[in-house]
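Input record, target 12 of the design panel.
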């Protein structure tokens, strides 16, 4: 009986989602559905606005609301928690013909969502004592564990500069961003959590290669090799501790 109820509820939810994303003429034939859809649209706009403040600022409130409604129809939420909705947004924007004139929007959406996920990541405290392992332990036996929610991304657009300009609201910062975009200056970024806030910081190519290797779970020695000559581990470590990128140093299993 429980299995039958479960399947019935699943069918009911799928039917409701199908009706909600159906064309207006079909939806109007179902009593109360248009009001339900209007409420769903409003919830989608609010949820996506919380998750993607940079994207909302770039588009403006009205255009952002239209985008959120379109995205809701293309990729309706599959879970009750709208805070987890939106993973498909960057790719959807990149393939949206109407947004092709603003090719940087997809990467900005990625950055916003990475920040949103980072802020929702599990709380973690850096294990300062584990840093002592860096003294006298073979780097081939060590690996670095990043903080939960940390994300890396390379864009052909100056994402860190865009984020900083919107955070500051300073016209000079926006002018600098426009100049960098006109020159085609991209940035690689680290998204991390700084207290209760999400943070975006630019990182150079060597630092990016080092952190990407870390994310694959390789040894410290292998990550240093990936970073290449000229990588200053001491400077990176100071930045990692200051910016809350590093959770712990671990000894790898033999």
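The sequence produced for target 12 reads:
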């Amino acid at each position: 009986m429980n299995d039958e109820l479960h399947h019935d509820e699943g069918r009911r939810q799928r039917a409701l989602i199908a009706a909600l994303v159906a064309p207006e003429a079909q939806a109007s034939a179902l009593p109360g559905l248009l009001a339900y859809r209007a409420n769903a649209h409003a919830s989608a706009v609010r949820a996506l606005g919380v998750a993607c403040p940079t994207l909302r600022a770039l588009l403006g409130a009205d255009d952002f609301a239209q985008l959120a409604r379109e995205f809701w129809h293309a990729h309706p939420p599959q879970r009750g928690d709208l805070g987890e909705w939106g993973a498909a947004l960057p790719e959807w924007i990149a393939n949206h013909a109407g947004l092709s004139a603003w090719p940087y929007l997809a990467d900005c959406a990625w950055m916003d969502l990475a920040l949103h996920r980072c802020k929702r990541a599990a709380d973690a405290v850096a294990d300062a004592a584990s840093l002592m392992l860096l003294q006298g332990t073979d780097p081939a036996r060590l690996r670095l564990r990043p903080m939960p929610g940390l994300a890396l991304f390379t864009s052909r657009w100056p994402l860190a500069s865009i984020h900083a300009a919107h955070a500051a609201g300073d016209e000079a910062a926006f002018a600098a961003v426009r100049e960098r975009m006109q020159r085609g200056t991209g940035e690689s970024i680290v998204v991390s959590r700084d207290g209760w806030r999400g943070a975006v910081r630019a990182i150079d190519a060597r630092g990016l290669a080092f952190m990407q290797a870390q994310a694959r779970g390789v040894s410290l020695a292998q990550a240093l090799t990936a970073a290449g000559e000229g990588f200053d581990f001491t400077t990176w470590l100071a930045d990692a501790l200051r910016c809350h990128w590093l959770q712990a140093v671990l000894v790898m299993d033999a």
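Residues 2-102 form one domain.
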